[in-house]
Amino acid sequence: MKAGPSPEEIRRHNLGTLLRFVHLRGPASRAVLAESLGLNRSTIMALTADLTAAGLVREELPRRPGRRAGRPSLVVRPESTRVYVLAFDIGVDRLSVARVGLGGTVLDRRSADLPRGPVDPAELVTALAGAARTLVRKAGRDAVCVGAGVAFPGIVRRSDDRVVFGPNIKLYDVALGEMLARRLALGVPVTVGNDADLGALAEQLRGAGVGCENIVYLHGDVGIGGGIIVGGRLLGGEEGFGGEIGHMIVNPGGRACACGSRGCLDSEVGERTLLDYAGRVQPDGQSGRDAVRAVVDAADRGDVTAREALHRVGTWLGFAVANLVNVFNPGMVIFGGTLRDVYLGSAAQVRSMVATGALAAPRDRVKLRTAELGDDATLTGAAEFAFADVLADPLQVLARLREPEETAPVP
Amino acid sequence: MKAGPSPEEIRRHNLGTLLRFVHLRGPASRAVLAESLGLNRSTIMALTADLTAAGLVREELPRRPGRRAGRPSLVVRPESTRVYVLAFDIGVDRLSVARVGLGGTVLDRRSADLPRGPVDPAELVTALAGAARTLVRKAGRDAVCVGAGVAFPGIVRRSDDRVVFGPNIKLYDVALGEMLARRLALGVPVTVGNDADLGALAEQLRGAGVGCENIVYLHGDVGIGGGIIVGGRLLGGEEGFGGEIGHMIVNPGGRACACGSRGCLDSEVGERTLLDYAGRVQPDGQSGRDAVRAVVDAADRGDVTAREALHRVGTWLGFAVANLVNVFNPGMVIFGGTLRDVYLGSAAQVRSMVATGALAAPRDRVKLRTAELGDDATLTGAAEFAFADVLADPLQVLARLREPEETAPVP
Fold first, then answer.
1. Confidence of residue B408 (pLDDT cuts 50, 70, 90)
2. Taking CB atoms and an 8 Å cut-off, how many pairs form between chains A and B?
3. Which chain A residue shows the shortest CA-CA distance from B215?
4. Do A359 and B231 touch (CB under 8 A)?
5. What percent of chain A has pLDDT over 90?
6. For position B102, which CATH number holds?
7. Domain contains B1
8. What is the pLDDT of residues B99-135, one digit of tens each?
9. Are A177 and A235 members of one domain?
């Protein structure tokens, strides 16, 4: 039970709210800001002045002024090339690093293939930091990095950004956030999140789920992950491990799962299972997004084995979705990563299972949708995670970054 | 995206926070309030003066003053006999109505058996209002009813307190909140919630879950219900239908469920199933809490059939708990209603299923507990629902109640 905020806390909250508005919805006139945020125009002016002085936004005449007479309202625009974050996406077979500007624009990016199999933590951090350094160098002298975020395919403890369990790339108990922050030496913390959690966040803020407060996001890569938005917030649970939908048991006694259990959604619907059913397991055990898409394409062309494989997988996916609809009463279920393709190839079966397995009341309301951000959902979510601090307290973060650095600068 | 609150909103928030503190934690000195709420003592004095003037709290010398020299700090005490709510619990075979004072004390109560089978909405409302009227009459002239809450065994739409689906007492699509409010004519709205949701709330506020922000509460009556607390808040979903754990499919193709599906937790673990396995189905199809307890007692005494019945039921209960641990990363899973007894009779099996089915990371943290409030959990939750308005904005609610009534007074 906490008392209400102090005037200073309110000012910080309002600065953050204004900055978040233009970050997520784009440039806006003072008039629009005043109406949207429920503040009067003099307050908007004062807040904008502070954010402008800090170099976070700038005010401009609108590019396409309206026809009405009189002086046009100035437009507040995020400083999207000057203020940026670093976003990292650790996929099972690919690393991506991007420089993302305030406002959400990807300014620059690098990707590299990651050989499947065990990953050495130190080598991983070296690879990520190396790519980031290149991006930072190209950013220019007056650009400022205000945060860094990592999407990781496994279980992450939110309190200290530590990777707890990453079976798909064989990474366990690694202080990834701390290691990468030290190596980057940009004076910003590195927040690490589960990839599906970040995909969910991205779809809610910038994708299919905009405007929806209750979302279940299912993400397919090698494994199946989940991210859940409840009342507009990411469900974390006690330590940030929440949303592990991939390890819901849908088929008791079913296929063995990498987690040690049986019949998890992951083991019944994951990439290897689909390829197995479709008779397309690669001789070297490798697979990937393209292999999954090839099954869906083959089914589209009438391949019976591929169709049956998708039907089997769609049955378990449908069971899981029905359960999630009953438990969460979501406005939307979003299928992302390879599950986007799997869902498109098995939608009739998924919907049929939901029709019989979900209660009428929550079923009537839910929409089943595919992710809009495509393969960039997790990277976008990592960027949003990285922006969280500066959006919560813009001036404080900027002030801290301008203090003489205690850590060594990037060479 | 909303701007920060106005000074008036902050004052209301602080009034509500102070009132909530003494409501939930009991009488507190100004010194304790100042420290707990993070406000200075002059603010606490002003807030207390306002609440005292409104008749919501009173200040007294402590009953057992400390030994330290000087004037003892006054204790702020909720006006628990003067300010009350009406709490209704609609069980499958019993109605309970209580008058609950600010601070959570049950001041008076009435219960009546409800014959199992279809219930006529008008008769139900008449029975509830009649019992309430007796309690209100006995309350005295200076007592004020500040709210009313109903726990209902089925699906309730939160936006308009409407019963959508109540298969266990055959009540469908009834504007229960509105009907009861009109009949009570006390000038307060009647909020209606799912019984398991309210049980979860009660256990979090006053029972086993105090201090825990992430709780899964499983409630057994005739059916199995669930209430979930995420980040300190009740999970509602889009329309308040969330938390229907009883209709998670745990055993695909399993026993037919009243909802039309198969293998729901409800149909695998519910009262009828347990009694069926134990060979104790009543000839008239009736059952109830006593019958469930009798099975657990028999198992305790070594009855093999009863033990096997609990083992079977415990297996599916364990599957469900494992899934919920993976999805929610809760700090606690609480078993209430008849599931309290079922869990106590099958704890080893439930724990064994959780050990194999839940991921290590969230499993390490979760505690499995039985409800502390016993059969009163749902009634207590209904009272807390009813107090919500006055705790959110104390003076406003009191002022509204003192306006000349437009509705007829209770005869």
1. very low
2. 199
3. A237
4. no
5. 78
6. 3.30.420.40
7. no
8. 999 999 999 999 988 877 788 999 999 999 999 999 9
9. no
Arithmetic mean of pLDDT over chain A: 91
Q: How confident is the model at residue A408 (pLDDT cuts 50, 70, 90)?
A: very low
Asked if residue B13 belongs to a domain, the reply is yes
Q: Is residue B121 part of a domain?
A: yes
Alpha helices, H only, B161-228: 176-184, 195-206
Beta carbons of A359 and B165 less than 8 Å apart: yes
Phi, psi (rounded to 5 degrees) for B310: -65, -35
Are residue A87 and residue A31 in the same domain, yes or no?
Answer: no
Same domain, A155 and A121: yes
Of B143, B233, B232, B202, which Cα lies nearest the Cα of B385?
B202
Which residues, in sequence order, are bridge partners of residue B151? B89, B193
Task: Give the containing element (helix H, strand E) for B313.
Answer: helix B304-328
Whether A373 and A203 have beta carbons less than 8 Å apart is answered as yes
Domain shared by B223 and B309, yes or no: yes
Q: Are residues B337 and B222 located together in one domain of the fold?
A: yes
Residue B71 pLDDT: 67
Considering Cα of B402, then B405, then B406, then B411, what sign does the dihedral take?
positive
pLDDT at B331: 98
Strand B83-90 with B144-152, pairing? parallel
Looking up tokens 């125009």 gives A41
Give the length of chain A.
411
User: CB burial class (10 A; 0-12, 13-18, 19+) of residue A40?
Assistant: exposed
Q: How many structural domains are present in chain B?
A: 3
Amino acid at A54: A
**Looking at the complex, does the CB of residue A285 fall below 8 Å from at least one CB of chain B?**
no
Residues B179 and B243 grouped into a single domain: no
Please give the Cα distance from B168 to A128 (Å, whole number): 57
Whether residues A235 and B238 touch (CB distance < 8 A) is answered with no
A206 in a structural domain: no
Average pLDDT, chain B: 91
- Confidence check: pLDDT of B273 > 70: yes
**Eight-class DSSP state of A374:** G
Q: Reply yes or no on whether the pLDDT at B405 is more than 60.
A: no
Q: Which helix (DSSP H) or strand (DSSP E) does residue B95 occupy? A: strand B94-101
B259 touches chain A (CB under 8 A): yes
Which residue's entry shows tokens 């109505």?
B97
Give yes or no: residues A169 and A244 share one domain. no
A209 at B interface, C-beta within 8 A: no
- Kindly state the average pLDDT of the residues A126-132: 95
Name the residue range of residue A173's domain. Answer: 83-197+377-402
Rounded alpha-carbon distances, angstroms, from residue B192 to A149, B144, B176, B240, B381: 42, 20, 8, 11, 11
- What is the rounded distance in angstroms from the CA atom of residue B213 to the CA atom of residue B229? 7
Q: What is the ipTM of this complex?
A: 0.92
The Cα B205–Cα B212 span in angstroms is: 9
Say if B205 is an interface residue toward chain A (CB within 8 Å): no
